[in-house]
Amino acid sequence: MNVFIGVDDTDSTKGMCTTYLLTELIRELGYPVLLGYPRLVRLNPNIPWKTRGNGALSLSLPGDSSTAFKIGEVGGRDVFASFTPSQELPDTAALLESASSVVERLAVFEDENTNPAVVVSPSRPDAGFYWKAVRELVDRSEAKAELLKANGLYRTWKNGRGIVGATAAISWLAAEKTFEVITYRKKENWGTSRKVEASAVAELSAKFPSTFNNYDAVNRHSCILPSSPCPVLFGIRGTDPALLPEAMRYVGGEPIDRWLTFETNQGTDDHIVEPDRKPELFHSYLLRGTVSSTPRTLRGGHVFFSISTEFGSFTCAAFEETKEFRNVIKNLAPGDTIRAWGSLKPGPSVERFNLEKLEILSFGNRKIKISNPTCQSCGRKMKSAGRRSGYRCRTCHTKTAEPVYATAHPQIMKGLFAVAAGARRHLTRPPELMAGDNMSSPEPPS
Ligand code: ATP
Questions:
Q1: Which phi-psi region, left, alpha or beta, contains residue 141 (left: φ > 0; alpha: ψ -120 to 50)?
Q2: Which residues line ligand 1 (CB under 6 A)?
Q3: Which of 11, 50, 155 is the pocket-test mutation for ligand 1 (most atoms within 8 Å of CB)?
Q4: What is the pLDDT of residues 184-204, one digit of tens each?
Q5: Quick one: 157 and 135 in the same domain?
Q6: pTM for the whole thing?
Q7: Which of 7, 11, 23, 43 for mutating ligand 1's site (highest number of atoms within 8 Å of CB)?
Q8: The domain that contains 429 carries what CATH number?
Q9: Does residue 62 have a cis bond before it (omega within 30 degrees)?
């Protein structure tokens, strides 16, 4: 019989990382073989109280040693996993005690936003709880009710909010998944600048085509390095877990303390829903609609435009950090039909649909002004009557609204576009993983 252990909300932006805590848990529990890979499960990216990427962690044990394979090195020992459970019967109460002592040793309790929880359950709670936690806002009481149904035990600290993530992390069925190998720094280097050759990171995708989101070549940014002072050196994402250790060695860098391969829901779009009713704040959607305003760029380089959908009109936003994605957005025009992936968040004046990806399906008619109009009464060229006031004939004072237009060709291609790799959400399925999703690749306008 196997047991599921979940843990969440132990870290802070100033240090620690719940994935590191999981490696310590593996070291201290002392089980030689895990059942399957440990899991790094990303949840609703829109919750207002997350510290970073809203990640929760889980593992299952024990696994059968005769079918075990290596998935990491922690504390100077190899870590193994097997897809076959062992016949051993673990003591759930003892596991909760051991896991709690690891949390008490490592969690950043002094951070007011750190509210840890550990759950230990002899059965997997209903998968519906994972789907709710990745797409909606969930109450702690719902997590406790799910654990009760699964005969699970839990311990929480401070406001105990971590119980939502810890329970969701053991509820995930991993039907659709990717993997990430994470390397951890030697303790004496924590907080110092990370020593990893950018050139090796830049070559990763070519050398290991099953890896993704490694390097942003346009902005020369190594996406595998975290930006916080946490114990992680780097994390390489990919669809083939067998190749990730090799990719890890290829990148190299400063000497590491430990490494571990995780199964994750990153790059699955699990957070996205095709709405069947009016979209709500703090949820992520795939909207289909028609561009209804000319995009405008505001101070700071953020670009906004409106789309009209069957659920009403939405203000779409592509922020500065989305980089060259904004060049596509700036060239949209009223009448273009699009599919837009993103999240509905509050803005200073109106709600905003913050874009993650966009597919251009068809182009509306584009027109550009080629000259001022000719007066219909006297045949002379008309002059501007002022901003947004149309045109006026200086001779006979006739007025008209429109200049002379010509049809313009779009300066963008149809197809799928995503924000710059460095600005992508963990859950967002990158375009390179969408080949089987019946997506159109960029093509010139017809
Ligand atoms: P990480 O640093 O690992 O990327 P994070 O620090 O951004 O993640 P957490 O520290 O895990 O995020 O904090 C998020 C908190 O929100 C946790 O307490 C978690 O239980 C809770 N939470 C996660 N998803 C939901 C949800 N859908 N509804 C309500 N609470 C949630």
A1: alpha
A2: 8-9, 11, 18, 43-44, 47, 49-56, 115, 133, 136-138, 161-162, 164-165
A3: 50
A4: 999 999 999 999 999 999 999
A5: yes
A6: 0.93
A7: 43
A8: 2.40.50.1010
A9: yes
